[in-house]
## 1
Amino acid sequence: MRINSLNFKNFRNLKNISFEPHSEMNVIFGENAQGKTNIIEAIWSFTGAKSFRGAKDEELLNFDAEKSEIYCNFISEGIEKEIEIEITDKRKAFLNGKALKSPSKLAGNLNAIVFSPQDLRLLTDGPKVRRKFLDTAICQLYPNYIEILREYNRAVMQRNKIIKDVRNYPEINDILDSFEEKIAENGEKIIKYRLRYIEILKEFIPKIYGGISSEKEFLEIEYIPSFKNLSLLENLKIRRQEDMYSAKTSVGPHRDDLDFKINGISAKNYGSQGQKRSVALCLKLSEAEVIKKNTGETPICLLDDIMSELDINRQNFILNHIKGMQTFLSCCDPKSVENLKAGKSFRIDKGEIAECISI
Ligand SMILES: Nc1ncnc2c1ncn2[C@@H]1O[C@H](COP(=O)(O)OP(=O)(O)OP(=O)(O)O)[C@@H](O)[C@H]1O
Ligand SMILES: [Mg+2]
């Protein structure tokens, strides 16, 4: 996978910039608040996923503009492709000039991984972030998964809405039956996809984490389901009474979690800041390996402002590991990547490319 050219118009503070990235390393540097992360975020948009910063569509549009247009020309499996996204209060995506039903339909065209300091949340926050990591990764690889997730979430919402009324209107029981069947049907599929994904991740995690920790530590990852016995449908029925009081569905993949153990000990509960950061980094680099294995192509690697947070060994590990992947790396101080053999550096100033240096 390789991006040939990019153009961003009115995307946040990027008024109108165009550039042709290097096939391997692209360093985006500059002072704070100049637009470096905005560039990374714009490139990530071409995957079809929502902003990795959790931004709403309208926040991506420049304050003074009515429409943003971002464009990417790239090569995948030897074929040149074009993606264009128009952003107003929502996003509209075009693939090779043809309008798509929704931006999520872009999934599987331009594959990328993104790693930013916020990914530490994978270890510090609640299970929602970890489920999102899994789901976003799976959506890129298996675009059908998006619809399964959507159907599932819709059915859970519907069940939550009516379950509290069951006591007053017993006839609702029949409708609940049909929602629970829908939840179970899609929920079992989601769990299968996630377990399969984790099995593939596991092929890469020991080696990558070993490399990050200079072979001192061993990382294990485990899927924690919200139920252990019986089928999802049976569990939903058993919990119906209880769920009536909370008006929430207490079982299913929207309640599942991931656990990480370093040398047998929970990284979430006992890991140091550095260890947590290493786990997050390991997950992202493993995600790239899974994409490579499944698609036969290296994904685009987006590294937002992470070098200053890592010690020199980890910095070198990443730089070695990402060789062969087209990378966009943002940083304030380009010194952290001064040993690069080849690539381009772009100095960003007030949303513009002030300087482009070829190495
Ligand atoms: N919708 C928008 N319209 C115009 N400007 C925006 C919009 N959204 C964000 N900005 C501005 O974009 C600027 C650059 O943001 P960005 O996060 O890319 O900075 P950065 O170069 O990554 O800085 P840092 O080194 O601090 O991470 C910020 O000053 C922000 O106010
Ligand atoms: Mg930034």
## 2
Amino acid sequence: MRLENRIAVVTGAGSGIGREIARAFAVEGATLAVTDINAASAKETVLELPGSGHQAFANDVSSGPSVVETFAAIDAAFGRVDILVNNAGVDHTPGDGREYMLEPGQVIVHMTDEGFTRMMEINVNGVFFCLREAVKLMQREGNAGAIVNMSSIAGLSAHGTLHYAAAKSAVLGITRAAARELGPCGIRVNAICPGVIDTPMTAGVPDAALKPLIGATPLGRTGKPDDIAMAAVYLASDESSFVTGQWLSPNGGLIMC
Ligand SMILES: NC(=O)c1ccc[n+]([C@@H]2O[C@H](COP(=O)([O-])OP(=O)(O)OC[C@H]3O[C@@H](n4cnc5c(N)ncnc54)[C@H](O)[C@@H]3O)[C@@H](O)[C@H]2O)c1
């Protein structure tokens, strides 16, 4: 098993990609700290995981104090952290003009300060807060660890709304800066840039927006959460021990770069 005896924190693991990553990690022998803003869904994930010892934690990644408190609880429960997957995220926020997504030129002008800021709070600040707290524990336990940040094809090319693209590009910047600083400490930091994946997040995307994307995908389908989970297992495990500051994009060929 590729993650035996590892303690892994997965944020946003009450749904979609995060839940599948938690499952794949548990299959590979890891013990999971399943965190989500939705405490009930985090508990449901724990009940689905193979193996024992997994625990659920309620955590709002956009709140610094909430993240500090959650990692203190994880430390108290497990005594260390070996792997962090910064997966929690949203693709829209109240006041982001999303209702105009099929009308050319209308999303940006209808995006409010609050809609933009909330996106940054969850998708960017959240990655920073969790990474910082995980690194403190990784450094305390002998300077080793693997961090995987969830970006998107929106961070690589012209997909997604302005605030989502900005946030997911920032996640790649965080990944590279952290990889450079933490490499000498034995902590690897990489990113995954998923294409269009079947999860509750994309269930709300109108067919008129989704169909052209599938049409432009050489593999002719949307991805499954498992397609991303397998990439996360690779980046979290020793199989990628010489890989840091990189991104991997399971996207069916929708973008190639
Ligand atoms: N589904 C896709 O097509 C796709 C593509 C590219 C990137 N992504 C990224 O993958 C990640 C997972 O997305 P998904 O498709 O599984 O979505 P999802 O909506 O199914 O799951 C997201 C999870 O994050 C949690 N969450 C939201 N806000 C939170 C907060 N403030 N604190 C803690 N948890 C919070 C939600 O409760 C939910 O459980 C996200 O970062 C998303 O941007 C998804």
